[in-house]
Amino acid sequence: MRIILGIDPGLAQTGYGVIGIEANRFRHLDHGVITTEAGDSVGRRLHQLYRRLDDLLERYRPSDAGVESLYFARNVTSAIPVAQARGVVLLLLHARGIVTTEYPPQAIKQAIVGQGRAEKHQVQDLVRVLLGLSEAPRPDHAADALAAAICHYHSVEVGARIQAARES
Fold first, then answer.
1. DSSP letters of 108-149?
2. 102 included as an active-site residue
3. Stated pTM of the model
4. Domain architecture of the chain: domains with CATH
5. Whether 8 is catalytic
6. Which member of 28, 31, 64, 68 is catalytic?
7. I need a surface site. Which of 5, 19, 113, 119 has the fewest CB within 10 A?
8. What does the radius of gyration of the chain's CA atoms come to, in whole angstroms?
């Protein structure tokens, strides 16, 4: 079984989702959030994120990862902690040799719903359907991470099919 990790990075909460692929079918393995304490130093919070993510990587041993890229509309200050968390995530994935691709939120929505401006509840509901879950995944960051994992699978598969068509 091929295992793909999805990550929605953040300093306060980093969402994660783990899916397996068997015979081109999705299998939900795990999802949740890594939460850090607001009162702790940034260094301590980043280290907590590193340790907990490292434990997940050790447990599931994914071959690939889809990471939601940085997006901010107005407040650059709020983007800095997210960028710091993304740095930890990307460093750890690289150190583990995990094939990682970053996707903007609009690309993830497009891959799941078919519309880059889809509402959060639409993404959550289709993730639920694709993974055969009885309820939409919660919290939001975990649902976004599962969507990033599914997006990554679709992106890699389409790329492989295009490459195969070019070679034939």
1. HHHHHHS-TT--HHHHHHHHHHHHT-SS--SSHHHHHHHHHH
2. no
3. 0.93
4. 2-167 (3.30.420.10)
5. yes
6. 68
7. 119
8. 16
